[in-house]
Structures are given as C-alpha cells and as structure tokens.
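Quick one: Response regulator from Halapricum salinum, structure tokens please.
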Amino acid sequence: MTHYDVLHVDDDPAMGEIVATYLEREQSGLNCTVDVETDPEVALEELRDGPTEYDCVVSDYDMPEMNGIDFLEAVRELHPELPLLLFSSAETSDVAAEVVHAGLTDYLKKGFGGEPYTMLVRRVEHAMAGGGAFDPESEIELDGVGVVGVDESFDEVDDTYASLYDYESEEVTGKHWTELHPDEEVEHIKTHVLPVVQGGGEWTGRSKGLRADGSTFTESKMVTALDDGRMLIAVSELDA
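--- reply ---
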C-alpha cells in the first residue's frame, strides 16, 4: 500500500494535531504521515530544502505571517503539480475567487464536530490519488467566479462573471443558472455536468453562454461542489 506524506500548516497547533490525528488514524485508509507546521515561512523552507517529498499540502487561510492563498501560491511556484488544499474557517464566498485564480486543488470549510475532518480525509485521498492533481499545462483560464445555491440560483457572482453575460453582478444574483445558457446547453449540463459535480467530482470543459441580448459565446468552465451543497462556477470567454 502506498505511503503518503502530508504537510499541514496552521498557526493553531491544536488544530494541526487534530487534523494529523484524523488523517493518520487507521480508519482513514490513507496510510499517511502528517507533519504539522505553525509558521508558513518555515513550511516553505521545508518544501524548498527539507528531506521530505510531500504528496499533498493542507493549509489554513487566516494566519498572521501570510494568508493561506499567498502561502499556497508560493508552494505552487516551488511544486507546480503538488495537490494543495485550503482547510479554513473563512466563508466560501470570501475566498472563492482566490481559490480558483490560485489554482488550488480544493477548498473545505472548517466546522464543529467530526464531519469536516472526515470530509477532509476524503478530499485529501481524492487529491493524492490523482483526481485532484493540478495541471499547470491546462488551457482552461478562469476569470469570473460565481456561486450557485442549493436552489440552483446564483447566490453571488463577481463583476467579471456577470460582464461575460452582459449583466451587472446584482442582476445575475437570484437568477437560475439555466437563464445564462441556451436550451440545448441546459440539457447538456443537466445530463453530463451536474451528475459529475453532485457526485463530488469536478467538471472542466467548454459550454455555451447566453448573453442578455440573446447572443451566445463559447465559455471555458469549471464547476465543482462546495462542502455546503452549493456549486462554485468559474468561467472565461473563448474564441469560437
């Protein structure tokens, strides 16, 4: 059975120990060793010059030395294909755009009880098995970010996302996602995209967007499930 080495970075040492306990215990099925570091600068030194070749990095977001996005972006420069996960108490909407633009493998919100840690085990397992590996050669460039609620209507979008469809961001909030796609594309998404995402996976590819004036455009899209049941969608316009 393959053995994995995981680096967890959190300025709260108690949290680090909890994460290590969940990931290392036999019931997790991961067969991994977790090194815990409270200082992201020291963690970067370990990744740069340390003796361990890590298979995955898990980081908190709100840390005094540097935030988790800055830290993981620095890691990405050292190891372009290393799976990177953000495990944070920050609200999804506050960090969604940063997560996408930084090319992180996954984001999971901390919470009370054992469920967030059990879910973290599954996300780490998925990432290290290759299902969540970041591809630095990917042609998909993602500019705008939106979050779709459990009712399949947009909870929020950034200005770039809305502008791709010729709307203001407040005009898109509350719209059902189907309103931003032509009918034939809606059927494709329902048949091929949503089953992947609702099964816990991530879908990336091309689809058709519908602008406010009724015209369409080709979009590069990434859709992934958030841990609270909502969906994160990131898009950019492609030349047809």
